[in-house]
Write a structure and sequence with these properties.
308 residues; mainly alpha; 64% helix; disordered N terminus; K_trans_N; transmembrane helix
């Protein structure tokens, strides 16, 4: 906005549906690659050696119930409905949240507000003043008064960024290694132990070598692969439901989560770390927001990834 004339300059046009659908298609290859391949190792990691399932399949239902509700509560409710709205001029991620807080409250240790920004932020129109007694105003004044809270906020932003970086380093190795470990079904143990690690390293080198081509090309390259993968596991899942156990829909009831923990006791609590693997990569929905748009990420998840 021009502070002198009050006229908006360069107001971004709304994206067409064609552009949004193309971005949604590209996001499958960039944003949802990790989240879509999580089924590779969730059940294998959850069922530890000390957990055995009975003939009633209550343990199977319990794990499936945990997986379903974890995917529903975190990626769908948390990210799609809440977190994606907290963008910083279209950018997402931990630093984007911190930058947004610094512009609305004086909590930054470096001067990041220009004189023009201060004039605009201090502008008030009669009848539209925010009540000073609101929770947001109280929290803002509290953060501005206490330097300790400002340092804590900065440390949390740095820790959150480090966790995303660590996740980005570790999860590709876990995903690729888990996929390559499937070769043991067609190879002997003597040959498999010499093949598994080198093949995983070669695949990882090839994947990271493609990164410099940019999001646009990488998205179009990997989107059909992820789409094919999701369609395959969907078709296999539907076939197995009707062929083996049509009553598996009962696992949607949270009651089986309680039954699972009651029967497995300590082993069940320890196995919850494996359940968490089903949402690895969901943070990319917000971190990669700058490459796409809110609507495209929401469309891709709700129409393809979540149902699959």
């Amino acid at each position: 906005m021009d502070p002198e004339t009050g006229v908006l300059k360069g107001f971004p046009k709304k994206e067409s549906w064609r552009t949004t659908l193309i971005l949604a298609y590209q996001s499958l290859g960039v944003v949802y690659g990790d989240l879509s391949t999580s089924p590779l190792y969730v059940y294998k990691s959850t069922f530890a050696e000390d957990i055995r399932h009975s003939e009633t399949n209550e343990e199977i239902y319990g794990v499936l119930s945990f997986v379903f509700w974890t995917i529903t509560l975190v990626p769908l409710l948390k990210y799609v409905l809440i977190v994606l709205r907290a963008d910083d001029n279209g950018e997402g991620g931990t630093f984007a949240l911190y930058s947004k807080l610094c512009r609305h409250a004086r909590v930054s240790f470096l001067p990041n507000v220009q004189v023009v920004d201060e004039e605009i932020s201090a502008y008030k129109k009669d009848g539209f003043d925010q009540p000073e007694k609101s929770i947001g105003s109280k929290l803002k004044s509290t953060l501005e008064k206490h330097k300790v809270l400002q340092r804590v906020l900065l440390v949390l932003a740095l820790i959150g960024t480090c966790m995303v970086i660590g996740d980005g380093v570790l999860t590709p190795a876990i995903s690729v290694f888990s996929a390559v470990s499937g070769l043991e079904l067609s190879m002997s143990k003597e040959h498999h132990k010499y093949v598994e690690v080198p093949v995983a390293c070669i695949v990882l080198l090839c994947l990271f070598a493609l990164q410099h081509y940019g999001t646009h090309r990488v998205g179009f390259l990997f989107a059909p692969i992820i789409m094919t993968w999701l369609l395959c596991i969907s078709a296999i899942g539907v076939y197995n439901i009707f062929h083996w156990n049509p009553h598996v829909y009962q696992a949607l009831s949270p009651y089986y989560m309680y039954t699972f923990l009651k029967k497995t006791q300590r082993g069940g609590w320890m196995s919850l770390g494996g359940i968490l693997l089903c949402i690895t990569g969901s943070e990319a929905m917000f971190a990669d927001l700058g490459h796409f748009s809110q609507l495209s990420i929401k469309i891709a998840f709700t129409s393809v990834v979540y149902p699959s």
